[in-house]
């Protein structure tokens, strides 16, 4: 690299005046040996970084309550960050050196560039010296990784204390979970001969142990078994100790005679002793707090299957452990309902008052405190118990609520909460721990989208490449699934195929995780500005600003790698000044920010992997974007960008390119999306996996065939003359799952009869007329979502699609010119959502008994000729939501009158005219805010898009 750099420097020197040539020549000569030595040092320091990161990952999650070690480890992290900065700075300057045009544009900055190169050897020497001092400090104070056992013992004692305290809870203290306790009792008392394994699953603090204790101490249950035992397994169990404890509890009478022997028995001998004793017994064993399936391997042999109706009950936070039990013997606990949370809190906080009544003067703050607990019994009980000793004064309760985050991190009386929740965090392997810490950067109650968090993890280098044909996106999804199986993230929404779409982190888990992330300088989330937060933000590697960005005094930080801005009020000038300080950024998210042009400084961010400027007013992408050669994700959804510069083809590492505006959220219009013009040869973007929405042209449709990693494609302005070549390209995309095609105008007709099906397609949207009004046979049997718009079909499309047994969502908008649609018995067994819209001649819908038995949502829109409510709707008992938009007056009258009995079983029926903006907003805005955040509503209101928004959530949701 040094030789190449010297060549570049000489070229720069030749472009300058003679005096400058002589001076820069001396600089080059002086810099040459330093640069040569530096390359050798760089290789060494990169190796040092990998060792530092491995060491930090190994010990950071295992050490607790060791302040001296934590202080030392904090300095190790600082050194690791310094090394990473040097490596990233090296990559940055290398790119600048190769970009000769950049040098010519900045002739008078060349000496500064050489000075930056000269600094590297000194920086490396300082880092090496710090590493040496840290090594000496470790020896001086006796820090050793081998001492982790001491910490593990401390952690183990916490687990036993927590489990024991939950076991001792009186039944009268339990609120909620009556159904779960009843079900457990029924399972334990049922007359089933084979040994049954039962599991209680849930996140820490939900009351798994307390519920298990309730049934374990039930006398009716106890007397139905010959013997019983309660064993705490814990994270750091020893098989021999578990087996001895089981013997200690089960074999009561013989224990004295064998006391001297079983303490020295081998593992196998202990198993044999338990087997021998239980062979003719009906036993009941509770294994509390099981973290690992391996714990069951030996216990499974010890707990003999003796056809006596024995029962084993396990409590766990991990889904893979609960899967040891049969599906119908797993109880997954949820957080308490609001009323149950309030009842439990009042029992604890106001136990001294009559009937546990909350005084009116503090009710407001008590309600907020309970809401903060989000139905977690452990938090409600612990916080309620602490507040029971406080004065019932409004200012004192208000102060406690405002300081709750600090209290959780620092108040010893609340340590139970953090201890329980930290156990799950400390159990994470290093690769999952970093990913989970990243989740805490988002605001409270934020629904984390699967595609978004996956992209961020990948951009940050937190996802491993497995090299077996598995994409990093698929690996990231595995990480998410593992976090949900460990009860750390909750799935809040699923796609039609059952795949998780959004996740939620419990607020108290987020508070504790955020505190750890801040302490380790991993990330900082700022809910408000202020000078006190500037230093923390300066030290962090990742920064998320939710509000009050402009009040921060300074955000200059060369260490920052992720900058996510939720504050939509900041001006473009603030963004330019701030981002200019973060030249080593990997992630920049400016979604919903009120800017009209891309800040020029962004194109200087050589290390940038992820850039999100969606839902902004940006109109043009500059040619200088070609310098962002490491960019993996470019998100320009719902902007005003109409074309991309030729230089975009230089971004060969792009994996996701999304640039379009959605004009009609409900997609009832013929042209719902804008199409973006793409110049140049798209073949260069061989890593593209998602591209939407691009405008078709003759060259583009043929070039697409080179993008064989493509998984999601949306292409607009398609002409019949492109179809054959386009389909030929699509057949070369073996991973293509999602396809959207729209024609260039409402009069363009596509002939697709001779085309072959795309075998792996699961989502297909086709907008445009079809030749002769006939439905082509191009639909894959795997298809789960199908949307046909303005197809002008002459034959009832329902019968043609009835063979598609996997279909979950079906949308027909303006697609049929006939008068009647018929849904026969046994058709569409998996359909959950159906929308029929804008068919002007449709006057009858026949629904037979036994069709669409799993349909949950039905939308009828613009069917002005339909006068009666389809009688067969009464047979669809699963239907719980019905949207009626722009329907005839006669239809609405019959809905409330003679046909009302048909829809009585549907709990949620919403009807309105799309011209009634207030009615539309009442239905649509809450859904929009929940899906995209409040920023989306503000954005639509600002640019006037609310006027064309149609109200219904029943449409294809845009991919993140």
TrEMBL record:
InterPro entries: Apaf_helical, Disease_R_plants, LRR_dom_sf, LRR_R13L4/SHOC2-like, NB-ARC, P-loop_NTPase, RX-like_CC, Rx_N. One of its GO terms (molecular function) is ADP binding. One of its GO terms (biological process) is innate immune response-activating signaling pathway. The keyword Transcription does not apply. Keywords: Coiled coil, Leucine-rich repeat, Nucleotide-binding, Plant defense, Repeat, Signal. Residues 560-865 form the Disease resistance R13L4/SHOC-2-like LRR domain. Residues 1-17 form the signal peptide. Belongs to the disease resistance NB-LRR family. This is Disease resistance protein RPM1. It comes from Zea mays (Maize). The lineage of its organism: Eukaryota, Viridiplantae, Streptophyta, Embryophyta, Tracheophyta.
């Amino acid at each position: 690299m040094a030789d190449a750099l010297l060549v570049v420097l000489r070229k720069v020197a030749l472009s300058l005046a003679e005096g400058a040539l002589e001076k820069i020549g001396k600089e080059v000569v002086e810099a040459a040996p330093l640069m040569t030595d530096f390359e050798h040092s760089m290789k060494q320091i990169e190796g040092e970084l990998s060792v530092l990161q491995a060491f930090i990952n190994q010990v950071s999650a295992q050490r607790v309550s060791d302040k001296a070690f934590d202080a030392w480890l904090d300095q190790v992290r600082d050194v690791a960050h310094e090394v990473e900065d040097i490596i990233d700075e090296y990559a940055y300057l290398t790119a600048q050196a190769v970009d000769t045009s950049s040098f010519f544009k900045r002739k008078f900055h060349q000496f500064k560039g050489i000075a930056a190169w000269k600094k590297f050897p000194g920086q490396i020497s300082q880092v090496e010296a710090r590493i040496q001092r840290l090594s000496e400090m470790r020896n001086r104070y006796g820090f050793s990784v081998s001492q982790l056992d001491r910490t593990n013992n401390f952690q183990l004692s916490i687990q036993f204390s927590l489990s024991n305290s939950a076991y001792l809870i009186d039944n009268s203290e339990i609120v909620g979970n009556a159904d779960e306790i009843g079900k457990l009792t029924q399972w334990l008392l049922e007359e089933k001969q084979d040994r049954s394994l039962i599991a209680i699953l849930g996140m820490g603090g939900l009351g798994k142990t307390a519920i298990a204790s309730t049934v374990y101490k039930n006398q009716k249950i106890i007397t139905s078994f010959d013997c019983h035992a309660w064993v705490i397994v814990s994270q750091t169990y020893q098989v021999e100790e578990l087996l001895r404890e089981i013997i200690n509890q089960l074999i009561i009478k013989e224990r004295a005679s064998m006391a001297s022997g079983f303490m020295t028995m081998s593992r196998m001998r202990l198993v044999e002793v338990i087997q021998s004793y239980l062979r003719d017994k009906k036993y009941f064993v509770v294994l509390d707090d099981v973290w690992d399936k391996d714990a069951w391997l030996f216990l499974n042999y010890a707990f003999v299957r003796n056809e006596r109706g024995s029962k084993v009950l396990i409590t766990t936070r991990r889904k893979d452990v609960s899967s040891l039990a049969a599906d119908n013997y797993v109880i997954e606990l949820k957080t308490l309902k609001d009323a149950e949370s309030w009842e439990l809190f009042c029992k604890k906080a106001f136990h001294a008052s009559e009937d546990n009544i909350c005084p009116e003067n503090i009710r407001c703050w008590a309600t907020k405190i309970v809401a903060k607990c989000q139905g977690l019994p452990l938090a409600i009980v612990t916080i309620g118990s602490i507040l029971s000793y406080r004065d019932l004064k409004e200012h004192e309760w208000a102060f406690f609520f405002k300081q709750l985050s600090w209290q959780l991190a620092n108040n010893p009386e609340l340590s139970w909460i953090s201890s329980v929740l930290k156990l799950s965090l400390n159990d994470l392997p290093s690769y999952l721990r970093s990913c989970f810490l990243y989740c805490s950067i988002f605001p409270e109650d934020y629904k984390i989208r699967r595609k978004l968090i996956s992209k961020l993890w990948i951009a940050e280098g937190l996802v491993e490449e497995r090299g077996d044909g598995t994409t990093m996106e698929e690996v990231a999804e595995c990480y998410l699934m593992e976090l949900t199986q460990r009860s750390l993230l909750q799935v809040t929404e699923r796609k039609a195929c059952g795949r998780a779409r959004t996740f939620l982190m419990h607020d108290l888990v987020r508070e504790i995780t955020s505190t750890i992330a801040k302490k380790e300088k991993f990330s900082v989330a700022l809910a408000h500005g202020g000078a006190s937060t500037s230093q923390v933000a300066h030290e962090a590697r990742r920064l998320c600003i939710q509000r009050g960005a402009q009040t921060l005094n300074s955000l200059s930080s060369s260490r920052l790698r992720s900058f996510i801005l939720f504050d939509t009020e900041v001006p473009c000038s603030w963004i330019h000044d701030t981002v200019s300080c973060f030249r080593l950024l990997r992630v920049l998210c400016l979604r919903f920010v009120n800017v009209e042009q891309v800040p020029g400084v962004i194109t200087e961010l050589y290390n940038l992997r992820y850039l999100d400027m969606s839902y902004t007013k940006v109109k043009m992408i500059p040619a200088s974007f070609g310098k962002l050669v490491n960019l993996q994700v470019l998100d320009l959804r719902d902007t005003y960008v109409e074309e991309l510069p030729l230089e975009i083809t230089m971004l060969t590492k792009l994996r996701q390119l999304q640039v379009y505006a959605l004009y009609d959220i409900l997609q009832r219009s013929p042209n719902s999306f804008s199409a973006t013009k793409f110049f140049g040869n798209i073949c260069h973007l061989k890593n593209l996996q998602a591209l939407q929405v691009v405008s078709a042209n003759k060259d583009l449709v043929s070039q697409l065939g080179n993008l064989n990693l493509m998984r999601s494609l949306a292409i607009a302005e398609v002409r019949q003359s492109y179809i054959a070549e386009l389909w030929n390209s699509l057949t070369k995309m073996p991973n293509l799952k999602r396809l959207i095609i729209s024609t260039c105008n409402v009069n363009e007709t596509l002939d697709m009869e001779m085309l072959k099906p795309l075998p792996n397609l699961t989502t297909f949207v086709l907008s445009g007329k079809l030749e002769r009004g006939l439905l082509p046979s191009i639909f894959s049997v795997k298809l789960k979502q199908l949307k046909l718009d303005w197809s002008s079909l002459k034959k009832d499309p329902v019968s043609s699609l009835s063979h598609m047994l996997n279909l979950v969502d079906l949308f027909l908008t303006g697609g049929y010119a006939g008068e009647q649609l018929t849904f026969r018995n046994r058709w569409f067994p998996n359909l959950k959502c159906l929308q029929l819209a804008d068919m002007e001649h449709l006057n009858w819908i026949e629904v037979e008994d036994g069709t669409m038995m799993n349909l949950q949502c039905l939308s009828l829109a613009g069917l002005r000729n339909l006068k009666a409510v389809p009688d067969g709707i009464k047979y669809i008992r699963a239907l719980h939501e019905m949207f009626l938009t722009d329907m005839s007056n006669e239809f609405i009258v019959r809905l409330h009158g003679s046909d009302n009995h048909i829809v009585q079983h549907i709990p949620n029926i919403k009807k309105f005219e799309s011209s009634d903006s207030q009615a539309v907003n009442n239905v649509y805005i809450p859904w929009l805010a929940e899906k995209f955040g409040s920023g989306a509503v503000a954005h639509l209101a600002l640019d006037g898009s609310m006027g064309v928004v149609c109200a219904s959530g029943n449409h294809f949701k845009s991919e993140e």
